[in-house]
# Entry
Amino acid sequence: MNVFEAMDTARAMRYLKPDPVPKELLEKLIYYASRASNPGNSQLWQFIVLQDEDKKRRIGDAIAQSFRDTFERQGLDTEGHSGYYLAAHLAQAPAIIFIGARNEYPPWQPDKRFVGSACYPAGQNLIVAARAMGLGATFTTLHAAASKLVHETLEIPEELSIALTIPIGYPQRTFGPVRRKPTDEIIHWDTFSGGKT
Ligand SMILES: Cc1cc2nc3c(=O)[nH]c(=O)nc-3n(C[C@H](O)[C@H](O)[C@H](O)COP(=O)(O)O)c2cc1C
# Structure
């Protein structure tokens, strides 16, 4: 599969089979994630790969509970809500990759905004690499629903902020073209208000 097809069809894959993902493939994903652009090539990203069933259950249960509470409080329907499904079944994902970074860029005046900048391009590379390898993945911020517990359970130092949580597994549903606006709605040639074509 070429890179264009992978980008075109790398839908958020929230429904995953329980089959384990070989360690070599997880390493390969992280290899390609860490080819991404990053501020000043500081490469502050760290990848924590969670496969341990007990730890997955502890973190997954807390995130699922947080989603149940939020949906109930807001009177939202959980039926057929794929984001809710992913949160409720997080513990069943064969692997969950957390991407985080310390606030160390630029070295002369570290700025917390660079933590996300350090991690997000790696996350997108990982999504595209997973698609090319036939693996399902979703770019998420699910850790935010149980941040303290994630740090404690995975023994992540306090000063390392998690920016992304990416559940990985073999897809249970089919990949397909992502739905995005046509480019003629978002391209502006030479001036913003000027010609669209
Ligand atoms: C910064 C960011 C945070 C996201 N957080 C979540 C999330 O917490 N849960 C989730 O299910 N999807 C999450 N997504 C995935 C988007 O919802 C998804 O990419 C978007 O709805 C488009 O769907 P598609 O990629 O399948 O075309 C996130 C994406 C980004 C870029």
Notes: Residues 53-73 form the longest helix (21 residues). The radius of gyration is 18 Å. The CA atoms of residues 121 and 152 lie 26 Å apart.
